[in-house]
Amino acid sequence: MGGDRQTPDVSRAAIKDDIDKLSKTPEQFRQIQTFMKRRTHMNANSELALTSSEFAAYIINHGGELGKLGDVSQIRDLRQCFADTPNGSSAPLTLEIGFGMGDSLLEMAQNAPERNFVGIEVHEPGIGRAAFLAHELGLTNLKFINGDAIALLENLPANHLDTVQLYFPDPWQKKRHYKRRFVTPERMALVAERLAVGGIFHAATDWEHYALWMLDVLDHMPQFENVSGQGNFTPRPDFRPQTKFEKRGMDYGRSSWDVMYRKV
Ligand SMILES: C[S@@+](CC[C@H](N)C(=O)[O-])C[C@H]1O[C@@H](n2cnc3c(N)ncnc32)[C@H](O)[C@@H]1O
């Protein structure tokens, strides 16, 4: 991984300039994916969770063809998916984008039983694994979606979500890939629209350039206020467990940065 890292200019002026260049071509953003589907081994439990109807309650768009990006076009309301659960549909709702293998999301759902959580991923072994474990744990406040978070957000109603969390998103380190970063003014405008007023966008990254980039994008959006004050990172909150990618980064000696914004 280290091999393809560039050493970018992390001065705030240079980062601002890169963001401004992006914003000149907003029409491109609908076509550009923020992910690259990885092919990795899928174990038997993951495959079972993706294919057996026993797990259908855990994967909102369960039953799609393996190997294909999940279809989210019919998902227009996440709250309704919890109507038959003990929390019901009006409990505070968190959407996690790109939960990877799911360990930190499972832990958060266990630690906050009064909230409902939905995780969306494109990585099938992770979706299957997380759904298998959620079923084993008997969690009723956590569900998963297989698919592209941007396509999902486009279909959801305004003011639908209480929290959107994005932990260690793909950093897209090369300049020519910056447009793939999840945090861009255009994609964050969509996130802001789907958040309720007072709702929280929380992100973390271990790539310094992306951390400063997130601050610049979000500090300039009138829809958001920085919970820690303009220009400041947020100390890592206790409720955010370490993620798999974060642990890997720490093994390489990297730090991590959290940003937290409230929709105004
Ligand atoms: C670097 S990994 C981090 C995974 C996990 N959050 C962690 O910290 O261990 C980023 C994840 O985001 C997912 N992802 C990127 N863009 C996405 C999108 N538009 N919709 C759903 N998942 C996405 C990727 O598939 C990948 O698994």
List keywords for this structure.
transferase, binds S-adenosylmethionine, 264 residues, Rossmann fold, globular, 7 strands, 17% strand, tRNA processing, seven-stranded mixed beta sheet, tRNA_(Gua-N-7)_MeTrfase_Trmb, alpha/beta, 30% helix
Quick overview:
By secondary structure, this protein is an alpha/beta fold. It contains 8 helices and 7 strands; from the N terminus they run H-H-E-H-E-H-E-H-E-H-E-H-E-H-E.
Write the layout of secondary structure elements.
Elements (H helix, E strand, L loop, with lengths): L11 H12 L20 H8 L41 E5 L5 H9 L4 E6 L2 H14 L4 E5 L2 H7 L5 E7 L17 H10 E11 L2 H12 L4 E3 L17 H8 L5 E7 L1
The structure holds S-adenosylmethionine (SAM).
Question: How would you characterize the overall build of this protein?
Answer:
The chain has 264 residues and is of the alpha/beta class. Helices cover 30% and strands 17% of the residues. The protein has one domain: Vaccinia Virus protein VP39 (Rossmann fold). The protein is built from eight helices and seven strands. It has a seven-stranded mixed β-sheet, with helices on both faces. Helix 1 packs across helix 7 (208-219) and helix 2 crosses helix 4 (124-137). The longest helix has 14 residues, at 124-137. It is globular and about 55 Å long. The termini are far apart. The mean pLDDT is 93. Bound molecules: S-adenosylmethionine (SAM). S-adenosylmethionine binds at residues 34-35, 97-100, 120-123, 148-150, 167-170, 182, 243-246. Keywords: Methyltransferase, S-adenosyl-L-methionine, Transferase, tRNA processing. One of its GO terms (cellular component) is tRNA methyltransferase complex. It is an enzyme of class 2 (transferase). Pathway: tRNA modification; N(7)-methylguanine-tRNA biosynthesis.
